[in-house]
Amino acid sequence: MSGIELIRRASGHAEAVAVVDGGRAYTYAELLEASAALGSSLLGGVSDLGEARVAFLVPGSFAYVTVQWGVWRAGGVAVPLSTAATEPELEHVLTDADVTAALAPAALRPRLEPLCARLGVPLRDVGGALAAPAAPLPVVSEDRRAMILYTSGTTSRPKGVVSTHATIRSQIATLVDAWGWRSDDRIPLFLPLHHVHGIVNVLSCALWSGATVETFPAFDLDATLDRVADGAYSVFMAVPTIYVKLIRALEAMEPARRERVAEGFRSMRLMVSGSAALPAAVHETWTRLTGQRLLERYGMTEIGMGLSNPLVGERRPGAVGRPLPGVEIRLVDEGGTVVAGEGRPGEIQVRGPGVFREYWRRPDVTEASFVDGWFRTGDMAVLEDGYYRILGRLSVDIIKSGGYKLSALEIEDVLRQHPAVRDCAVVGLPDETWGEVVAAAVTSDAPGGLDLDDLRTWAVDRLSSYKLPRRFLVVGDFPRNAMGKVQKPRVRDLFSGDMP
């Protein structure tokens, strides 16, 4: 049996249902058999892939889990690809990771065939690989590289974050403990599977626990609501954008159906929000509609999850809770001094067994990202009444104005409370007097349009400590990444030409 704890544990749940895909249930025994066959196919006669990188373009499905586990069982490094990625984005990952093979199901092979042919990367069909005869599989130690996930770069091209099997095991065990995972849990999986949220928090935690995952290629609002109304799930994890969509759908339903769906949510033992800041208004609206208090947490590709509101206890809107078991957190100010006490902002730095090993083939960037063994997240936070609150990214979300450090995330949260504002994104603009001034791009569904003077007055009244948010611009829908998070507009795109 594999030395990988996640896979080793599966034999203890052999007859339980691991994955439901398209209405068909697959047991843990079937998952072990299929992943062994795929691993044997990848070996192709050699005894161990020896950390060769294997990329795969597979949507959420039983096949995805089979490929991921098959790569690991053959001694390879899994490199999951985004099904929404463009060809240049796919090319960057394939070349940067120096993959030795790629896999895709028949429906997605055309997405990769021209690119793989040009790059000289063998492209395998998932179905064909599953038909391979079984072969001896290597024993893979936990200190070996297991996965490379590519992060969205804010100032450069995405970097490959390398996790070992031990890293992943630590991340899973931490969440299973903190969130009380059980073998009778049932959870939907519609999140992108090239992110730690879907891979670790949902898929791996569930399979570690002997629970059941129902997979979807992407988020399907109607299908999800139907399954929730049927009482299909006990745990639910999503990003804020999805909760907003669910709220709008619930509010538009006729009362009888709304009550059935709300009861489905109400009966779940745990609902989690992450991957982006959850506006306090969304948190409160969700509780009003379903009776559920969403559990918000904080994490990133490099560390897994670091902070979490408690499973039992206060789940505070706007806060991400306390350090998870086995995770050390500290705040450090711009001068490099560790922040003592509460109320003073600082950069979140993390230490623990769940922190990644390295940025793939970027030793200089890896070295610069650590201080005395602490990983520098680049995120600012403040500790208030025992709970951490995220202020935003140092690079894009912290606006330095008149000697103050202002959180773009906090300003956005306030602006979204205006009845005419559907969404917004806040950036800092250069200013000779203040250094930077607050600028907000706003979208509105108000029938009569958005009165900018009214919005300015309303915002200034609620943001008096943030100086004057004096520049606003109404634009169309903001682009979002695969997790549904608003992408910050570039200043030159929004505010080119004469300023108001």
CATH domain class of the domain at 5-179: Alpha Beta
Q: Biggest β-sheet, characterized? A: 5 strands, mixed
Based on the coordinates given, report the CATH architecture of the domain at 5-179.
3-Layer(aba) Sandwich
Averaging pLDDT over every residue, what do you get?
A: 88
CATH topology of the domain at 5-179: Rossmann fold
Note the beta-strand portion.
25-35%
Structural class given helices, strands, pairing?
Answer: alpha/beta
**Please, what is the CATH homologous superfamily of the domain at 5-179?**
ANL, N-terminal domain
Distance between the termini: 67 Å
Q: What is the number of strand segments?
A: 26
- Give the proportion of residues in helices: 25-40%
Shape: globular
What do you see in this structure?
The chain is about 35% helix and about 25% strand. The protein has about 500 residues and is α/β, with parallel strands linked by helices. Among the domains are: about 5-180, Rossmann fold; about 400-495, GMP Synthetase, Chain A, domain 3, CATH 3.30.300.30. It has a 5-stranded mixed beta sheet with strand order 11-12-13-14-15. Strands 16, 17, 19, 20 and 21 form a 5-stranded antiparallel beta sheet that branches. A 4-stranded mixed beta sheet has the order 2-1-10-9. α4 crosses α5 (about 110-120), α7 packs across α8 (about 195-210) and α9 (about 220-230) packs across α11 (about 255-265). The model is unreliable at about 490-500 (pLDDT under 50).
